[in-house]
Each structure stands twice: as structure tokens, then as C-alpha cells.
Amino acid sequence: MINTPRANRLHISLFGRRNAGKSSIVNAVTNQELSLVSNTPGTTTDPVLKSMELLPLGPVVIIDTAGLDDEGALGKLRIDKTYEIMDKTNIALLVFTSSSDYLMEEEWYKELKKRNITTIGVINKIDSLNIDDTDLKKKFEIPFVKISAKNKINIGELKEAIIENAPSDFERDTIVGDILKAKDMVVVVAPQDIQAPKGRLILPQVQVIRDILDHDAMALTVKDSELPSILHSLNKQPDLVITDSQIFKKVNEILPKDIPLTSFSILMARYKGDLDMFTSGAKAVNILKPGDRILIAEACTHHALKNDIAREKIPMWLKEKVGGEILIDVTSGGDFPKDLTPYSLIVHCGSCMFTRKQLLSRLSRCKEQNVPITNFGVLIAELNGILTKVTTMF
Ligand SMILES: Nc1nc2c(ncn2[C@@H]2O[C@H](COP(=O)(O)OP(=O)(O)OP(=O)(O)O)[C@@H](O)[C@H]2O)c(=O)[nH]1
Ligand SMILES: [Mg+2]
């Protein structure tokens, strides 16, 4: 990720009056003292660009700018430079503090709109100023977040708003294509058990097969029961095997050790979320104790069947691992608690029904509150002792 060229990174820039707290916000969001902060208006004179990894958002450039209300001949030059930054911005944070009117901000917002730049209103200094946002919300058709950069209040909310409003071309463009070559043979193991919907394949299977085809490789789809005999009848070894995580153990035992194996859920962890975060989150399972509380979060609201992965299998495996009772909450759909601190671990579904932004904003909340998160497949791989094996190809 460090090698991502600057042009491909999401550019997040701060605009606003001098002294509104732009530099302080950059420092709070990045958790680093990157920009000089002072009580003297006009502290930041030149744009400050910083390429960084803003987890779980990925590679970004954060740009601090000079106040757009700068004065004098030099001030005018600084304002011109700030407008140049607007041209390369993907997300603008327009910073507000208390003011008798917001005519200047309206002017700047017009400029941002002209350039089609996604804008988030950031109301700063809520620790000491009482800013009424009803008027602001009427004047500006943008999402608002109220924060204190100085006291680090609601910085997590601000990060979530950035992720949720990021332009959609910020989505990853392939699920598995980046590790395939044209003509590769991929065996897709798709159990058609009681949980499989009648007459069709499920979304992650369809998406993975489509992605394999789009990369000029071959997708050979089999049920787990047929895997041994079909492997035997092939005249070459598959280049990759992708299975449903629920039968990881079984498929791993069937396959010769040198055939790369992964799962739909692990591919989804990469595509929709952050595989590194899920991998380190899964390690939390090794330090769980009886009595710990665990959240199992599903993206869609489906009717739970017998042997349901979220409601039956994962709770059972976790209890076995811990060797005692644990407390389990299950949420589905849009529900995801604001306060995650009661949880020792969060286990998320593959999120095939979620956009990357939806899942990333949840990851951001977990990171902010220091709560480990993983997904179904990554957890199952860890429980079976094969997590390294099924992620080495990435
Ligand atoms: N009370 C309070 N003060 C803040 C907050 N954020 C910033 N400040 C103060 O506001 C002043 C200006 O902060 P900066 O971050 O330098 O503001 P800026 O928008 O970068 O200013 P220029 O670079 O001059 O355009 C400093 O004295 C900060 O300590 C906040 O959340 N609450
Ligand atoms: Mg500044």
C-alpha cells in the first residue's frame, strides 16, 4: 500500500477560515503532530500534504491548507494556492466555528460544488463554543459532524463520515483477479447443503466465478462431496482452490498440501474490508475467557435455518475453544452498536450485501474503540490452525 502512487490515493483536504482549527483536525485525525497549530490566524501558509495509511480507509493524502479568508497581497496568493488544492481534492472537510454569518463558507461551498467535490461540514470547537447547527443544515446540503479537535471528541465519527462519503471509485476493482494469471485453473468448492438457496448459487460464489472469468481463467465448480474424485480425474493440479469457509477443515484434509487454498470469506475480507485487520482480530480468539461478550454481526436479515452459521455454528465453536460459557449478541442488517467496548471480539459476516464503504466504516469504529474484529471465514481458519496457509497468496 505504501507504494500506491499519490494520484491513486484518496485526497482529503481541509478548508475554512484562519484559526477554525484545520491544522488541529489534521493532527487529530492522523494522530500525529503534522501541522503547526497556534492561536495566531494565518499559521498555515503553504499547503501541507501528507501521504499516509489511514486505517481502515487505506492509502490517503491529507492536505492542510491556509485559511481561505486570508488578507492582503500575500493572503491572496495563499488563497489561490488553496483553490489549486481544491482541484485535486476527492473529499473536502469544510470547517466551521462560530461566526455571525456563514457567507464566506457559502462562497467556498459553491466552489466545491462547481468542482463536484464531496463535502463534509465539520463543526469544530464544540468543547468551548455553542454552535447551533440547525441553521447550517438548512443552508448547506451536506452531512455535518460536530467535533472538538483539541479534546479529541467525535474524531471516530468524523472518520466514519469520511469513509461513508468517499467516492465509489474508491472500491477495490477485483476480488481474486490480482492473484490469477490468464488460463489458470481455479476449483470452486460450493457445498449445496440445506442452507443453499433453491435453484441458484449464493452471491459470493457468483461474484468470485464472474471475477475468475473476467480474468481469462477457468472456474471449475464442484460440491465438496465430489472434490476428491474430480481432483483425481484432472490431468494437472489446480492453481487455486476456493471453498466455503464452513468446510475449510474438510477441504484442507482432502487437498494435497502444495495446492493454494483460500475461501470466499477470506476473499471478501480483502475486497470489502481489511484482511490484515481481520487476521489480527482473529488472534483475539486465543485469549478469550469464559464470560466474555462477543458480537456476531450479519449484513443481511435472512431467515435463520437449522445449523445457521451465525446463530449456531460459530457460537458452538467459540464455546468449545474457550472451554466455557460466553455471552453472544447477534445483530443483523443496519444495526451495529455505537459502543463496542463491552465486546472482546466482533465476528462479521462476509458482507457480500454491503459496499466496501459500509464495512470500512464499521472497521473504523472498531479501531477507534480498540475492539478486535474478524469475519466468519478468517475466524474459522484460525480455529482450524490454517489461517497462515489460506492467506499466504496475498
Ligand atoms: N477550544 C478549542 N480550540 C481549538 C480546537 N481546535 C483548535 N483549537 C484552537 O484554535 C486555534 C487555531 O487552531 P489551528 O489548528 O492552528 O487552526 P487553523 O485553522 O489551522 O488556522 P490557520 O492555519 O491559521 O488557518 C489554536 O489555538 C487551537 O488550539 C477545539 O476543538 N477546541
Ligand atoms: Mg493551520
Explain this structure:
The protein has 394 residues and is α/β, with parallel strands linked by helices. It is built from 13 helices and 14 strands. The strands form 3 sheets. Strands 2-3-1-4-5-6 form a 6-stranded mixed beta sheet, sandwiched between helices. Helix 3 (103-114) links the parallel strand 4 (91-96) and strand 5. Helix 5 (155-165) runs antiparallel to helix 12. The longest helix is centred in the N-terminal third of the chain and has 16 residues, at 72-87. The mean pLDDT is 91. The structure holds guanosine-5'-triphosphate and magnesium ion. Residues 18-24, 37-39, 41-44, 66-67, 124-125, 127-128, 148-150 line the site of guanosine-5'-triphosphate.
What is the compact description of this entry?
This protein is an alpha/beta fold and 394 residues long. The chain has helices spanning 22-30, 72-87, 103-114, 133-139, 155-165, 203-214, 227-233, 248-254, 264-272, 275-282, 309-322, 356-368, 376-383, and strands at residues 10-16, 48-54, 58-64, 91-96, 118-123, 144-146, 185-189, 218-222, 240-243, 261-263, 293-298, 327-332, 345-348, 373-375.
